[in-house]
Amino acid sequence: MSVPVAYFSMEIAIDSALPTYSGGLGVLAGDTIRGAADLGVPMVAVTLLHRKGYVRQSISDSGEQLEAPEQWEPEQLLSRCQPVVDVPLRDRIIRVQAWKRVEVGVTGHSVPILFLDTDVVENSPEDKRITDSLYGGDHGLRLLQELVLGVGGARMLRALGYPANTIHHMNEGHAAFLLLDRIPDEGTPDTEGALQELRHRTVFTTHTPVPAGHDVFTVEHVSHVLTDEHLKKVEGVFRDGYLNMTRLALAFSGTVNAVSRKHMDVTKAMFPEADVYGITNGVHAVRWTAPPFARLFDKFLPGWRQRSEQLRQAILIPVEDIQQAHRECRESFLRAIESQVGMPFGGAGIVIGFARRATEYKRPLMIFNDLPRLQRLAEQFGPINLIFAGKAHPRDEWGKSLIRAIHELGTKGGDLVRVAFLPNYETHLAGQMVAGVDVWLNTPRAPMEASGTSGMKCALNGVPSLSIADGWWLEGGIQGVTGWIVKSPLNEGGVSPMEQDHADADALYSQLEHHVLPMFFHSHMAFGEVMRNAIALNGSFFNTHRMVDQYRVMAYERFVASCANCE
Question: Residue 330 is part of which domain span?
């Protein structure tokens, strides 16, 4: 395809030295960009330059999350672009500059990434700080950040010479204001035709399965910030005194996709007016495959770096070779734990990993629901080592309380149930963790997991998942083959959250007792078969090469074929 694609995301994780992300959304964006570079998709990415990052996390001796801004200098890592563009507000103009980083794919194709920045000399001191912190501040700051991303990003692309027929792909609703300059004015010639062309050139990916996760602003607030010209273009989307950014994106997007099949059903129920596709997320195979496994794949699966579906042939790799590669990853990770938190686990027992944003619906405490039962399992089979990581939002006191609870419960596990919490979870630590644990634990409250990608990263390294039946695991989980499925007999939504939590915890312990622990401790070859299946069946499909291919066929190229003015 020749028509360029502009990919907008509030956060992008492209390098651990660039703290321009907070978690899964940004990591997915970075992997998408890498996948596009590998496959030669003519993409440009747009995000914000977060000079203070998200938050640098440390944990006190009492289990309290401590926060500090990131310290980094964009001049040392990025190149400055020449144009400076205006974002008009009702009472002033915000000036926006851009910095650039280029991501090069395995075949030499490159994707530029633009980082928008309001630290421009013409701006007021307050406006210079708009882009400083990711997800920081109040709703007023969030509105300004999303205007800079959407309006500023679209104008920056035009200033850099990107053509009018560029396809705009919004990764979540944060970028929906990119529509403000593109929606045709009422009464213009062939308004309906212009709207149709706009939809043909607009893609929207939603990641959020709960209403609270969608950005909304009061009409009063929006009316005091937007210019009259921009305000008129969004008035038709107002509902009950609010502007919902997801509804704004839905109203003008020709293709809307959820990020798993289950999430597609959830999204259709939330927004029945939308025609929603399901394009399940994927991860970048080369980025997330640890060196011991990369060497193994290079030996047995030539071409896997260029096309990740080659990993299907991992079923031909000897189990012993896969286990040896995993031992190397595990030993390296355990050394990192010892150096980071001073709690050596040695080589004994099973290592179970859990790394998610610290929030209630992820249910990180489920594994501790019946600590005496967990201790009995450790006595019966062998030591159980639980490794946790993840940040709570600075204003999420409940999330912080979960971290404190993990810390406290970790002191009660005894000699056989050992717990560590690794601070400041970021991409480098994630790479070590998804390859170094023996089993990946995921316990969201269904159906609130839109997709999940951590388990996909683990699969590339032969680490099977022990996961609630939700998100991507409904598609990738095959009981006893690629991992283990935690599913209680209670129906979704038919019981209270507390009853569901207890039933899911009982199902989790049952999987540990009857399947995971017996196989790990007593059937090493059988466990190795599951590891190999995770690579061959999950790693070969749940990757960005497949995902970007689906976007290209289902969205980008379809638009080109249906829009007479796109070429």
Answer: 290-540
